[in-house]
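Quick one:
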Amino acid sequence: MVGALLGMPILIYTIFFIYIAFFFDMCRVDNLGGRPSPDGKVSVVIYSVDCGATTGFNTRATFAPANRKFDPDGSKQFLYVRGQHDFHVRWIDAATVEITAANAAAAFGEGNIVQRENSMNGVVISYR
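Output:
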C-alpha cells in the first residue's frame, strides 16, 4: 500500500512529462536568412534553435528547396554549432558554397561543433 502511494507521484510526473513532450514543441526556431544558389534550385538557410533554460542556443545551416517555405523539421542540417553565431553564405558556383563566421575561432572551435559536413546533396561546403 505504501509503495503504491509513493509510486503514484512518479507515475503522474512521467505521464505529464510525456504529454508535454509529445504535444508541445518547446523549442523556438528563428530563420536567420537564406541565400539561393546561382542556379536558383536550392538555398542555404541559417537558423537558430532555442529549447529553453535546460539547453543553450545553437546555430545551424541546411539546404532547402529555393521555391518552398523553410521547414526545420523536414530538413537535415549540414552545420550545427553551439551558441549564437553570425554566419555568412557565399556561393562560389551552383556546386560549391562557403560559410564564414564573424568570429570563426569561436564558431568553429572544437568545443562548439556538433556537426559539420564537407559536402551534402552534391554541394561542396567550405568553412572560414
